[in-house]
Here is the input.
Amino acid sequence: MSLHVVNQASDLADLAGMAFVPTMGALHDGHLSLVRAGVEMGHPVIMSIYVNPTQFAPGEDFDAYPRPIDDDLAKAEAAGAQVVFVPDNSVMYPADEDIACPPLPSVATEPRLEDAHRPHFFTGVCKVVARLLDLVRPSHMIMGRKDYQQLLVLQSMVAADPGRWNNVEVVGCETIREPDGLAMSSRNAYLAESDRDRALGLTRAMQAASEVADAATAEHRMRTVLKEHDLRVDYAVVRDSHTLMPVTGSIHGHRALIAAHLDAVRLIDNQSI
Here is the structure.
């Protein structure tokens, strides 16, 4: 079956009930693994490609964000997507409609992680995903765990208003990594080859955290490793896997989360420890 590319909200009228993979494009194997997961679940898969302006703050990389649409469509089709929705701003945020953001759940406002360092971010994410869910009306939404706080935020947003989206199930899939261990990200395209070893500081920091027993020591070790790789740290913490609130004592069953800057490139990663 050939790929069906649609651009208008009206094009989605007969496509409800599919598995949905929302993306901003610049697809890599992490995105494509989500498509494959939907196929393996036995669902036809619809992907969206839309670089959402409302989740970028002034001075962030909205204008520079890669948009290789032809390459993305070929990759989506090869992975098994049946439909790709490629709207423009007039479709997502029409001038004659007031597209509101749903109430933000506590996991979007209290952990002091992405919410503290990118305070605009979850308002933009929840607004665009709510709009996409209204238009696409999927049975499942499939997302990666690399953006772990975002996954929990969207699971909580949907759970708070299940009737609006017909009890869509938000499915989280494991982070896909490069052979050297670096988490796949569209922003990896900004890294020079000489930056790779420094970028691996995130992976090495989480490994160091997993080798100790208590949260305070784990966080200290992560910050030490990140500093050794000349990375500027936004946060390097161990948090409760469900609430993302601070933990004390044993780290077993919790989650290490890192955000750090390699010069102008901001990298995030996380893993269960």
About this structure: The mean pLDDT is 95.
